[in-house]
Specification:
eight-stranded mixed sheet; about 550 residues; Immunoglobulin-like; five-stranded antiparallel sheet
């Protein structure tokens, strides 16, 4: 299945089919053999037209040669996501051309228009819909042709427009064209990380054109480095970024106008804040009480910032519904903390990339977190992890620029903390007995604080205690252990003020190299939380750990 979707705003003409960098054609005249590929884009064309109101029209067409069943699986169902309240999608045609010239059309009446999965989970976002097209008659050797138009009829920011675009690297693409039309009298900022565009004027329109071809699938030379970049939220920037916003101040003022009235302190909000903080002895205790409440009691709906539009729901609505996306959870936290006497600001940030300061645009952000003024300091909070300790930020948010929206202040691109505000801990204790037949029976205890803690808490919280054994068994296997886990007990999963403690029994037959009497301590493989600068991946080692580690293993050997 392939997903063709606009990110529900002018922020992107990105579809899951990307466009590719030009590469030099083979020097010889031999016809390239692509028969081993899953599919090849013979042609892909994207035309984007913006008008002065901020409305846009995206016209996309493609011809794709399918070579194998893998290609059929990727293209067999096309999915288009859109917001019905502000946008529409018209599918001109989806058809398959057979080798003998026969054409099989996928009839319009077979296209299904349905609520998205997230809509069924959270009615807040009821206008997010999907069109599903099951491609009729597609087989290896066929040519798939499709064309559709994606219209944003009600601009999210009146008078403003923007987009991001990336070129295909994961497939062969023999011809690719990108064409962007903007009003001639509008100033725009743009950045191209590939060849510069050809710019022309046609009547009242300025046109940017890129033409490219990719004749070789880009290999991942450093897969471990790429994985680390993803973990750290520092993926490759889009190849093309364009925006009518001329400054970050414009972006700041726009978002502030959307969220300011949504954090209003209603009587319900004031009463809840008072109840949460009545036993708090100081400001730190008040902050933690409100943070824990919003984190743990309000379900996070994982919609990227911009999905379901940019304006959050009101704090009162969120309090009633008890769920929300990132901007909703910030809004509730901000309203409650405002009622408790704090100054709180939204911070727009990206979990996938660093901010490029040269092209101001909302599309650079996919997440919202909170910044609380505490004296002369700033406290960064993210309630979307649900079980993250106070001040916890996922690795993708550390040491990243964020646009902090502070009322009556200029736009501020501030940097998040480079490290967590507490020590990361992994304590592992194994107390066991090795029997004469080589069977190890042990009681294992581990205590986690930091990234591993949040992952384990979240996983355990989604399961019943009866299912914990299977989860810890899988974790144990991933840590390099064989054997069987039983009797799993965990500390309170909602007590995020304390590290997570887990204990379980462990049995392993023929432990170690029993025949040669070579017995090693049953310790897990640990890794540095951050690798040295000269190494592209985390470094495994047997003893030691992240910022703080305490390991103890005691094994009683049989006599003789």
């Amino acid at each position: 299945m392939i997903s063709l979707r606009r990110l529900l705003s002018p922020l992107s003409v990105l579809v899951s089919i990307h466009i590719v960098l030009a590469q030099t054609a083979p020097a010889n005249n031999a016809k390239p053999d692509y028969s081993q590929e899953a599919l090849v884009y013979l042609q892909h064309s994207t035309k984007v037209s913006f008008d002065s109101t901020g409305a846009s029209k995206h016209e996309i067409s493609a011809q794709v040669k399918v070579y194998s069943e893998a290609g059929v699986q990727q293209l067999g169902v096309l999915r288009f996501t859109y917001e019905s309240a502000v946008a529409s999608i018209q599918i001109q045609y989806v058809r398959v051309r057979k080798a003998d010239g026969k054409v099989i059309d996928t009839a319009a009446e077979s296209i299904q228009d349905m609520p998205s999965d997230i809509t069924r989970e959270a009615p807040f976002y009821s206008d997010i819909r999907e069109k599903h097209v099951a491609v009729k008659g597609l087989s290896p050797g066929d040519l798939l042709e499709y064309s559709y138009t994606d219209n944003l009829e009600k601009p999210l920011v009146p008078g403003q427009f923007w987009l991001e675009y990336s070129f295909i690297r994961s497939n062969i693409a023999l011809q690719e064209d990108l064409e962007i039309h903007v009003p001639r009298d509008r100033a725009v900022k743009y950045k191209s990380l590939v060849a510069p565009p050809v710019i022309t004027e046609e009547g009242n329109t300025r046109v940017f054109r890129w033409t490219a071809a990719n004749t070789k699938v880009e290999s991942n030379v450093h897969p471990k480095k790429t994985a680390l970049e993803q973990i750290q939220g520092r993926n490759r920037q889009p190849d093309i970024r364009l925006s009518s916003f001329q400054s970050w101040d414009e972006v700041d003022r726009w978002y502030d106008s959307l969220q300011r009235d949504r954090i209003a302190v209603t009587p319900e909000i004031a009463a809840k804040a008072a109840a949460l903080t009545k036993d708090a002895g100081d400001d730190d205790a008040k902050l933690r009480a409100v943070y824990n409440y919003v984190s743990l009691q309000f379900r996070y709906i994982g919609i990227a910032f911009g999905m379901g539009r940019y304006q959050p729901h009101s704090a009162a609505e969120i309090l009633t519904n008890q769920y929300g996306d990132c901007k909703d959870k910030h809004t509730l936290l901000a309203a409650l903390l405002t009622a408790a006497g704090f100054r709180v600001h939204p911070a727009l940030i990206s979990t996938s990339r660093e901010v490029d300061p040269d092209v101001p645009t909302p599309s650079q952000f996919n997440h919202v977190i909170s910044v609380v003024e505490t004296g002369n300091n700033l406290t960064w909070l993210d309630t979307t992890t649900e079980v993250g300790p106070f001040g916890y930020l996922i690795p993708q948010l550390l040491n990243k620029h964020a646009l902090v929206i502070a009322e009556n202040k200029p736009a501020q691109l501030l940097t998040t903390p480079a490290q967590l505000p507490f020590k990361s801990i992994l304590q592992f204790k194994c107390d066991g007995k090795l029997r004469t037949d080589g069977t190890l029976e042990a009681k294992i205890e581990r205590t986690d604080r930091g990234d591993s803690e949040v992952i384990l808490r979240a996983a355990l919280r989604q399961l019943s205690p009866a299912q914990w054994k299977d989860l810890i068994q899988r974790v144990f296997y991933a840590s390099g252990f064989g054997g069987e886990v039983n009797n799993v007990v965990a500390s309170s999963l909602d007590n995020i003020d304390e590290p997570l403690h887990i204990s379980y029994s462990y049995t392993r037959k023929q432990y170690g190299d029993w025949d040669n009497r070579r017995i090693g301590a049953p310790l897990p493989i640990l890794m540095y939380s951050k690798p040295p600068d000269d190494k592209p991946e985390p470094v495994p080692f047997w003893l030691g750990g992240p910022a703080e580690a305490s390991l103890e293993a005691r094994v009683q050997l049989p006599e003789g």
